[in-house]
Amino acid sequence: MNTIGTTILGSPRIGPDRELKRAMERYWAGRIDAAELLAAGRSLRTRAWTGQRDAGLDSIPSGTFSHYDHVLDTAELFGALPERFTSLGLSPLDTYFAAARGVQDAPALEMTKWFDTNYHYLVPELGPDTKFTLTGSKPLDEYREARALGIETRPVLVGPVTFLLLAKSTAPGFAPLELLDELLPAYAELLRRLRDEGVEWVQLDEPAFAGDRTNAELNALTRAYHVLAKAQDRPKILVAGYFGGLGRGLGVLARSPIEAVAVDLVTDQSFVDAVAAEGALRDKEVLAGVVDGRNVWRTDPDRALEKARKLLGTAAAVSVSTSCSLLHVPYDVERETSLDARVKGWLAFARQKVDEVVLLGRALREEDADLAAARGAVADRATATEVTDPRVRERLAALRPEDAARPPYEQRAAAQQAELGLPPLPTTTIGSFPQTTDVRKARAALRSGELDEAGYVATMHTEIERVVRLQEELGLDVLVHGEPERNDMVQYFAEQLDGFAATESGWVQSYGSRCVRPPILFGDVSRPAPMTVPWARYAQQLSEKPVKGMLTGPVTILAWSFVRDDQPPAETALQVALAIRDEVADLEAAGVRVVQVDEPALRELLPLRAAGHEAYFAWAVRAFRVATSGAADTTQVHTHMCYSEFGEVLPAIDALDADVTSIEAARSKMEVLDDLSGAGFARGVGPGVYDIHSPRVPGVEEMADLLRTAVAAVPAGRLWVNPDCGLKTRGYAEVSPALENLVAAARQVRAEQA
Ligand SMILES: CN1c2c(nc(N)[nH]c2=O)NC[C@@H]1CNc1ccc(C(=O)N[C@@H](CCC(=O)N[C@@H](CCC(=O)N[C@@H](CCC(=O)O)C(=O)O)C(=O)O)C(=O)O)cc1
Ligand SMILES: N[C@@H](CCS)C(=O)O
Ligand SMILES: [Zn+2]
């Protein structure tokens, strides 16, 4: 059998210096043409493939590059973009970007989280009339492109079942999975064409099977791979499951006439036994995903080899791989010049992970492989005193149940009303105001030394004052300072907390051209000094109105960082919670009467399988409550959620016990309110009435109508009026009129209620 051998399931694609981001944004702004954009992509692919070849990988993936998102690529490949984009008469590239970003009268495809990661994909829209035809040629083009460089690759595609499960139905009562038999011939045709081209192996990703799946969905998996495997003239098929164990999907794949299965042996530590026990894998190659594709720690070679060796003899061949695509980690730790040298020695980014895979592959084949450096790094981290802080440990051990509880809501609500005297349907925003070029330039200048600290503070103060005055003019009731000083709502805090390291070049794609630099949480967390208080105090003294103190919650800080893997997340979250708790106390002491603790990632960390939900809710809710329960009754605690379907987390949102919860709702027309009421939620709630993902300015009547829908579900005394999320990605030209309309809508509905 001709095996795959050592490999990775996919690569980062935005570019080590975010070259693709810059090229895309220039193209959208009309500053470069399509040829230049395509050349930027080609150059990145060449670098990725040649680098992987030179590192000695046996099999190199292709097709994991994307101009925006790989799920959108799949919809385009099979001719499944909605008519509202294909009818615009644009070039294929601009049609693709229209679907990703929207144009006037053709709103973008919805964007949602890719499983439990911080990457967002575009949700395909499929209905009973959707027809699939192989209209694109991206996998073939990229395969040919690599071959022209002398590099044989393995095209990677989203698998047909996962593609359909990720799609949204355009017709009531219709499930996209019903389209499987329509879709499979298009995949089979693609496989045939890839084979004609000379492709030996193709990889089909089915991460949807890391979650709970119904019998019908498992049957679809069976059917898909029996049909595809039967296709004449096809490459050998590797099916990759990742972000967890495959559950019953493993048996299905074992019984399918495919040639190889990639399994994630990092996320679910017990899954290796299931794979070893699955005798039916005897005729297949197994790719042992023992190098963590989504965290940054160097792999423990002995533990990794132990897992891979368990599989020897249970499969036709065993090779070493990453647990998932390397899309979720930065490029190269060697680019970091300011990281603490000791911490740096514990890390592996994408480039280092490729080397780890190659080394472990050699060790597994009992070839010459020197594991000493890898063993040394792992041992150094395990024994480093920098990782443990006895004071933090003591504080955690001393936590009492009452530290996670406030007095009853009714008592707090009365005290807060006496303190704040807000009108019914109070208006507010979520925190950030547009991050202007001037603000970002000032931060870049501070970093480069062109601007000193005093100059930077003065620029931020000017910005804060402008934002506060604007809100006063607009007539908002609870103000914000606008968050101009924050590069990112997680990174900003991580940079000030002990136990975290920040990177300079550790960019990871979040969606399209937008990137984040997840901080690295390597040790016990504590707060050496207040993190937001001077800005909050400055903003509050500018106005008689309450200005919200703005913090990020412990769950979101964990979700958007690379988190240590040497202790349970519950413990790490409590450490972060204690730091936030101290910040809340300091904000109160500085005269701040409303504090918002954002938890937009509460849904994101929800385990993919229901069996893990209860334990997750327990630690996530406790961490939020520890962070906020030190607040006085008179201090109004807000929280905020966005970016997700909330259904499964509604009971947890209730259990957070925040006084006010603002929640994304504009696009779903307030549906979340009925669900919240159904879950027994009886505190303040601010369903978003302004969709900030769109440049559209909503009208007064449109928002008033949403509020009228809302007052039918929530008593006016508990209803807040706010946008869906922060305004940082928008411009003032849209934000000022939109907020003016929002205040007018609130006043109108207030008058109707009187
Ligand atoms: C709310 N969301 C967030 C998620 N994850 C986070 N960690 N943070 C989030 O806010 N996940 C879910 C969503 C995802 N949404 C977004 C929205 C917007 C961005 C975004 O705009 N990212 C920026 C980078 C932000 C940043 O770190 N800025 C820094 C550095 C700015 C920079 O690159 N500067 C340039 C020079 C600038 C100049 O001269 O004008 C440079 O250094 O080269 C800062 O402001 O200081 C992006 O551009 O991609 C991400 C996720
Ligand atoms: N306070 C943050 C929340 C984003 S989810 C903001 O306004 O940008
Ligand atoms: Zn938000």
Automatic annotation (TrEMBL):
Zn(2+) binds at residues 640, 642, 664, 725. It catalyses: 5-methyltetrahydropteroyltri-L-glutamate + L-homocysteine = tetrahydropteroyltri-L-glutamate + L-methionine. Its cofactor is Zn(2+). Residues 425-747 form the Cobalamin-independent methionine synthase MetE C-terminal/archaeal domain. Keywords: Amino-acid biosynthesis, Metal-binding, Methionine biosynthesis, Methyltransferase, Repeat, Transferase, Zinc. It is an enzyme of class 2 (transferase). Zn(2+) 1 binds at residues 640, 642, 664, 725. L-homocysteine binds at residues 430-432, 483, 598. Belongs to the vitamin-B12 independent methionine synthase family. Catalyzes the transfer of a methyl group from 5-methyltetrahydrofolate to homocysteine resulting in methionine formation. This is 5-methyltetrahydropteroyltriglutamate--homocysteine methyltransferase. It comes from Amycolatopsis saalfeldensis. The gene is metE.
